[in-house]
Amino acid sequence: MIKYFIALVFTLITQNAYAKGQATDWQLSFQEAASPLMSELVGLHDFIFWIITFITIFVFVLLAYVCVKFSAKNNKKPSTTTHNSLIEVAWTVIPVIILVVISVPSFKLLYKQNDFSKIDMTIKATGYTWYWGYEYPDHGDFQFDAIMLQEDELEENQPRLLSTDNALVVPINKNIKMQITSDPAGVIHSWAMPSLGVKMDAIPGRLNETYFRITEPGMYYGQCSELCGPGHGFMPIMIKAVSDDEFSEWVVEAQEEFATIKNNNLVYDMKGLK
């Protein structure tokens, strides 16, 4: 029994050391932050968490004190006090101050989430039923689909239900703007990457935008986070973050590999016009 407990504690302590960009067994909190934005989100969460914890403890202690202090046993003669101006001012002003303290970093982070002034490249993600399609308009406008791998297709260390046949490849330390939409004839999806602090709805006929910046190379995983039908749980997102040189090499290969997809789509569209 003791050895199982020790193993559990060891797993909880070291869970982030073995997997980056995906959930781990017995995980109790957020995924390890892989972007500056996610780091700030976690910091804001922790800041508010301790404020809430202090308020909760204070209220319970105050409630216990009042129950004892003003019980019938300790107050044979009921108090005739009707109000207390100082206390009334305090319970109005103090919550206002707390809300202001919380709102300042919240608004700063909200502004940063929508600051597209320093974008390095753009990628378009389209949600279909049930997979994601990607386009690179800044690199020749090639496109490809990312289909979830079946269990018999998985390679070593590839997570089940999170791996795709084609990864979304991006360079590290670059601000990547994501234009997210859904198939016009489809349903609402949501492009979500927990370790990057990104979640944006993909809505038919609407183009939503968000951005992220990955600081370390590696594989990062997400999923569709909007209930979208029977294939909802089979719409993983797999991002491969690489160096600038590796990304440039991949772009050359991808332009060659995925050129036929665009050409086939063009032929299909032309046939549809006839």
SSE pattern: HHHEEEEEEEEEEHH
Please tell me what the overall shape is. Answer: elongated
Mean pLDDT: 87
Count up the helices. 5
Q: How much is the radius of gyration in Å? A: 26 Å
Low-confidence stretches: 7-18, 263-274
Largest sheet: 5 strands, mixed
Portion in beta strands:
15-25%
What is the highest CATH level, the class of the largest domain?
A: Mainly Beta
- For the record, what is the CATH homologous superfamily label of the largest domain? Cupredoxins -  blue copper proteins
Instruction: Give the % helix.
Output: 25-40%
Task: Give the distance, in angstroms, between the N- and C-terminal Cα atoms.
Answer: 72 Å
Would you tell me which CATH topology of the largest domain applies?
Immunoglobulin-like
Strand tally is: 10
Strand order of the largest sheet: 3-2-1-5-8
Secondary structure category = alpha+beta
CATH architecture term of the largest domain: Sandwich
Whole-number tally of structural domains? 2
Quick gist of this model?
The protein is of the alpha+beta class. The chain has helices spanning 2-18, 36-69, 85-113, 244-257, 259-273; strands at 121-128, 131-136, 142-146, 168-171, 176-182, 189-193, 198-202, 208-212, 218-224, 236-242.
Describe this structure in words.
The chain is α+β, with helices and mostly antiparallel strands and 274 residues long. It has 2 domains: 33-69 and 90-115, Helix Hairpins (Orthogonal Bundle), CATH 1.10.287.90; 121-273, Immunoglobulin-like. The protein has helices at 2-18, 36-69, 85-113, 244-257, 259-273; strands spanning 121-128, 131-136, 142-146, 168-171, 176-182, 189-193, 198-202, 208-212, 218-224, 236-242. Strands 3-2-1-5-8 form a 5-stranded mixed β-sheet. The chain has a 5-stranded mixed β-sheet with strand order 4-10-9-6-7. Strand 6 and strand 7 (198-202) form a beta hairpin. Helix 2 (36-69) packs antiparallel against helix 3 (85-113). It starts with a helix and ends with a helix. The model is unreliable at 7-18 and 263-274 (pLDDT under 50).
